[in-house]
Design brief:
about 280 residues, Glutaredoxin, about 20% strand, elongated
Length: about 280
């Protein structure tokens, strides 16, 4: 983990312990502990294979209208996040972490995949969203004119329907004027169906790449990625990819079988040589 990642994680943990907004840093629905009042309604109810309603209409950072179907479906998978520009801490940490993961994945934004961020604040303006978008394009070292990462805005009912469709819990905290929410990235298949949920502010680049390759159904990635997907499997408990112990056991069994086979043929060869010498 890089120093930047350690600092970001430390801040997130501090928020987890001390504030309502970031206390929902990453709380999947499978979590079975006693839920504090501050976390009420902030869990993520994983809804694999579900889609954001296609007819929802948003406005992007350039002020253009587009539907969820236009934004979330196409030829490549999509990373979907829910954030907002005036979030005091968690959103910037999450999106900074996503930038790091994108760079580490070595996949190409706009060509191998796209990112869509739906704003949680219905009062956010396209101008404000455009500044946020430009910031992350600068982080990635890309020209903001390049397509690939869309920041979408909508009214409260539209945002709420989009969030509920993928099981993303959030709420407005009147005392602070902030939105409490979890740090989670949803990976969608090219047709818009949810494939994976990746939790936290520091998603490993390997996990992001594997999730995108898996969601693309073989349209992106290499033969090495296909091998890694055989060796690693998605763990819903951690929201990431872990080494498949069954694969290791299979590999070990094949190795042992190969060694035994080699010893058998070596023994036969030596026996044949001994017989040849005896009759020579």
């Amino acid at each position: 983990m890089t120093a930047r990642a350690r600092i970001r994680t430390a801040f997130a943990v501090a928020c987890l312990l001390g504030g309502a907004t970031a206390s929902s840093w990453a709380l999947p629905a499978q979590w079975n502990g006693n839920q504090p009042d501050e976390l009420e309604g902030l869990t993520v109810d994983e809804r694999l294979e579900q889609r954001v309603p296609a007819d929802l209409v948003f406005v992007d950072s350039a002020g253009a209208e587009l539907t969820a179907a236009q934004a979330l479906t196409g030829d490549v998978p999509t990373i979907l996040t829910f954030n907002y520009s005036d979030c005091p801490m968690l959103c910037s940490m999450q999106l900074n972490g996503l930038v790091d993961a994108i760079e580490a994945s070595e996949l190409r934004l706009g060509e191998d995949f796209r990112v869509v961020t739906i704003g949680l604040d219905p009062l956010e303006t396209p101008e404000r969203a455009a500044k946020t978008r430009a910031r992350y394009y600068d982080e990635l070292g890309l020209d903001p004119a390049r397509a690939g990462w869309s920041f979408l805005l909508g009214d409260e009912p539209t945002i709420r329907r989009a969030a509920e469709s993928v099981g993303f819990g959030y709420r407005y905290v009147e005392d602070s004027g902030e939105y409490a929410h979890a740090a989670v990235q949803m990976v969608l298949m090219p047709d818009g169906r949810v494939s994976r949920y990746l939790y936290g502010v520091d998603v490993p680049g390997r996990d992001l790449r594997l999730a995108l390759v898996e969601a693309s159904e073989g349209r992106i990635g290499t033969s090495v990625d296909a091998f890694l997907l055989f060796c690693f499997h998605y763990d819903p408990g951690t929201g990431g990819y872990t080494f498949a112990w069954t694969t290791m056991r299979l590999g070990g069994a094949l190795t042992i079988a190969a060694l035994l086979g080699g010893l058998y043929w070596l023994r036969r060869a030596r026996r044949a040589q001994a017989i040849d010498r005896a009759y020579a």
